[in-house]
Amino acid sequence: MKKIIPCLDVKDGQVVKGINFEGLRLMGDPVEMASNYSKNGADELVLLDISATTEGRDTMVDVVKRVAENISIPFAVGGGIKTLDDISRVLGAGADKVGINSAAVDRPELIKEAAEKFGSEKIVAAVDAKQFPDGSWHVMTHGGMKDAGLDAVQWSKMLEELGAGEILLTSVDRDGMKDGYDLELTKAIVDAVDIPVTASGGCGNAGHIVEVFEKTDCASALAASIFHENTVSISEVKKLCSEQGVNVSDS
Description:
Pathway: Amino-acid biosynthesis; L-histidine biosynthesis; L-histidine from 5-phospho-alpha-D-ribose 1-diphosphate: step 5/9
CATH class: Alpha Beta
GO cellular component, one term: cytoplasm
Strand order of the largest sheet: 1-4-5-6-7-10-11-12
Structural class: alpha/beta
EC number: 4.3.2.10
Order of helices and strands: EEEHEHEHEHHEEEHEHEHEHH
Active site: 9, 128
GO molecular function, one term: lyase activity
C-alpha cells in the first residue's frame, strides 16, 4: 500500500517552505500542523530541522516531544543527526525513525552502527540529489548546498548495504518548483535498491503523486507546499490515487 507523507521543514521552531532549498516562507506551527495532518489521513510525517547541520547544532528535541504527544501516526525526524547519542535522544523524545544525511556522507559507518543498535526499520537514509551537466546525479549535503562528490545511485546502494531501512530521496532541482517529481531520478534509485524509497521534491498537485506511483515503484510520496497551502487535501489525493488504481489506505 502506497503512503502519502506530508513534510514539515522546521527552522527556528516554525514550519517554513522554500524553492530549491532557499527563499524560505513561514507556514505555521509544527505541532499544530502535525496534529492536523495526523487527523486528516496522512500515513506518516517527516519533520526536518533544515538548518541544524548548517548551523552546527543539535536537532530540536522539544518540538519532537510535542509532536509525538499530539499525533497518532509514525513520524521520522531528520536534520543535525550526527551521532548514536543524537539518534537515541530523538527516538527517546518520541520519533519513530530518524533521517540521516550529511553525517552519513562524512562517516558512512554511522548507518551501520545505528542499524545494529536501533534496528534498520528506524534508520532512514536521506539522499538529496542534484543533476549535473553529464546527466549523473550527485549527492548534496548541508541543505542541498554542498556537492559531496558521490554518485547518488551508487551511494543509495551503499546505504542499503550498510543497513538503512529506507531511503528518503529528494530532488534538489525540483524542490519547491511544483512541476512534478524527478521521475528519472526516482526510478533510477528505486530500481537500484530493494528497500522502500520515498519520492520527494517537486510535487505541485495530486496528479504528480499519482504519476510518481504509476511511473516508478516508490513506496511513498512526500509533499509539503500543496498540503501546507491547502492546494489539495490528503483525502483528495488518496481519492484520486484510488480512482487511478493506485493502492492507498483509507483516509
